[in-house]
Amino acid sequence: MLGRLRIKAKRFDDARDAFEKCIQACKNSISDQTSDLHGAYLDLSKCFVQLKRYPQAIEQLTILIKLQQPNQNAEAYLQRGIAKMRMFAKFTAHELIKLSSNRRPLLDINRALVIEPNSAEAYLARAAW
Predict the structure, then answer these.
(1) Residues 6+ apart with CB under 8 A from 103
(2) For the chain, how many structural domains are there in total?
(3) Which of 52, 62, 102, 105 has a 20 to 30 A CA-CA distance from 30?
(4) What is the extent of the structural domain holding 78?
(5) What would the pLDDT profile of 19-77 be if each residue is shown by its tens digit?
(6) Which of 123, 80, 127 is nearest to 103 (CA)?
(7) What CATH number should be reported for the domain holding residue 51?
(8) Which residues are within 8 A (CB) of 70 and not within 5 positions of it... i.e. 6 or more apart?
(9) Using an 8 Å Cβ cutoff, are 80 and 108 in contact?
(10) pTM score, two decimals?
(11) Which residues contact 10 (CB under 8 A, 6 or more apart)?
């Protein structure tokens, strides 16, 4: 996929454009493009994280979580938790306590672990928080 090549080249804005076009093409397709659509949303969110546009990354991952079957969205929950961690990294403990529970990073990371209990990446993310 063109977007993934652009990620490797660290051309994140170009990659974002490619993934957005892929999402539109999948939505407009009459054939089943579910896995391509899910992959494009995940990769688009990763572009937004690299661009430090965390709210947009979280938004794309939230869409992906709603599209996927509950037992297939561990990666989306994990990536959304990581995006939240990065977004809230400069918050004080007092500010973090004030966050509504659905905005807390650990909630997403723990959901990922319920779905994929052997995810080393999820355990590392949880330990990092």
Answers:
(1) 84
(2) 1
(3) 62
(4) 2-128
(5) 888 888 877 776 667 788 898 999 999 999 999 999 999 999 999 999 988 888 999 99
(6) 80
(7) 1.25.40.10
(8) 115
(9) yes
(10) 0.77
(11) 50
